[in-house]
Specification:
Radius of gyration: 22 Å
Helix content: 25-40%
Number of domains: 2
Oligomer: single chain
Structural class: alpha+beta
Number of helices: 6
Largest sheet: 4 strands, antiparallel
Length: about 375
């Protein structure tokens, strides 16, 4: 940074301009909740304001507290009470800040989690375009793991012996997805990361703090805008459908290259049910379906059954599955709760699937479910 810019940034720290800019960006982020196409009911608006506070918590952890790529640590960029972009309720997400000019070492214990995926990324939601192209990817099944379950993984721009994950000089993030079939029974991987050769950690750099606060605020505004744009796009397609879209859009925003996504929006009256059906489930590493609110936050899976995966859902005799979305329990398998919502967004994902069939959807009256179950056999899926 030129000396004049350095002095100007220090002056902004001292005068309070740093904080004013941070707050101004957060205030402007509120316009994403007030977009003209967004619903105006009290629940959606309240969830929107809470959503911004959640994005702020994520942003401050990611870009301020753990924002120095020379001294990285893992943060959870989506979890039970802070959610982004149809976050997967079956995932434990971890991220760490990187600088592609340096080498990193991840030490870990594999655990028993069903899926473990490492990806290096550049860009991010703090940038105006929200693009997060990948520079390297490693499936946990390809890890060399010692007999005691431990492993080391090297991150660098030059190939290394053993476990290695590629970076470019533009790489600025490591994103880890741990995917569970059954959280109650599987053990998460334990991970820690260090930048090799970083040396002792110095005191807080005022100029770096200024920059990181501004990136944190930009993360809130740009993340809210990106996914509000997605919802606006989803709402141009028929309600209660899950069409296949160009996967490049999802990959550009940080999607796992192993995942094929179907996104849509749903709306149901009190006497209606949405059926989500796959006639024949293909061989795959994982699949699940989830309900989200308007802001693409997964509904509260701590207290409600808002998603199913291949472990929790009951298949039918033909090897397919029928999921039931309804406001109240129909007394049949594979029910998903709307958790007090009358509308929202939804996501079906395949991971490592030999085929990616589009789920078929239809809306029926709750009163019809019993006859449908009798026709197919209630013990075989519906």
């Amino acid at each position: 940074m030129p000396d004049a810019d350095h002095r100007a940034t220090q002056a902004a720290i001292v005068s309070g301009e740093t904080w004013v800019r941070f707050c101004d960006t957060l205030e402007r982020a509120g316009q994403q909740i007030l977009r003209p196409e967004a619903p105006v009911d009290a629940l959606t608006r309240a969830e929107g304001w809470r959503y911004l506070t959640r994005l702020a918590r994520i942003a401050l952890e990611m870009h301020v507290e753990y924002g120095d790529p020379l001294y990285p640590g893992f943060v959870r960029p989506s979890h039970e009470t802070a959610k982004i972009g149809a976050d997967n309720p079956d995932n434990l997400y971890l991220s760490a800040r990187l600088d592609g000019r340096h080498d990193y070492l991840v030490r870990g214990r594999r655990g028993s989690v069903h899926g473990l995926y490492f990806a290096t990324k550049s860009g991010g939601y703090a940038d105006a375009d929200g693009r997060m192209p990948g520079s390297g990817f490693l499936d946990g099944r390809d890890l060399q793991v010692d007999a005691d379950g431990t492993f080391e993984l090297r991150l660098s721009t030059q190939r290394r012996a053993g476990n290695w994950l590629a970076m470019t000089v533009e790489t600025n993030q490591l994103l880890v997805r741990q995917t569970f079939l059954d959280r109650a029974r599987e053990q998460a991987a334990e991970l820690e990361i260090e930048c090799l050769g970083a040396g002792p950690r110095p005191p807080l750099d005022p100029v770096a703090l200024h920059d990181r606060l501004q990136r944190a605020a930009a993360f809130v505004e740009n993340t809210a805008r990106l996914f509000a744009d997605w919802v606006q796009l989803f709402r141009t397609q028929p309600v209660n459908t899950l069409p296949a879209r160009d996967q490049q859009m999802f990959q550009a925003a940080g999607g796992d290259p192993n995942i094929f996504y179907f996104h849509g929006h749903w709306a149901l009256d009190e006497d209606e049910a949405l059926l989500v059906e796959v006639a024949q489930l293909p061989p795959c590493d994982f699949w699940n379906f989830q309900l989200d609110n308007y802001w693409m936050e997964s509904l509260d899976y701590r207290h409600h059954r808002i998603h199913h995966n291949q472990h929790s859902a009951r298949r039918d005799a033909a090897g397919g599955v029928r999921l039931i979305v309804a406001h109240r329990d129909p007394g049949l398998p594979n029910w998903l709760e709307t958790a007090g919502h009358r509308a929202g967004t939804m996501c079906f994902r395949w991971i490592g699937a030999s085929q990616t069939p589009a789920p078929q959807t239809r809306v029926v009256k709750l009163s019809e479910l019993a006859s449908l179950a009798a026709a197919q056999g209630a013990g075989d899926g519906l």
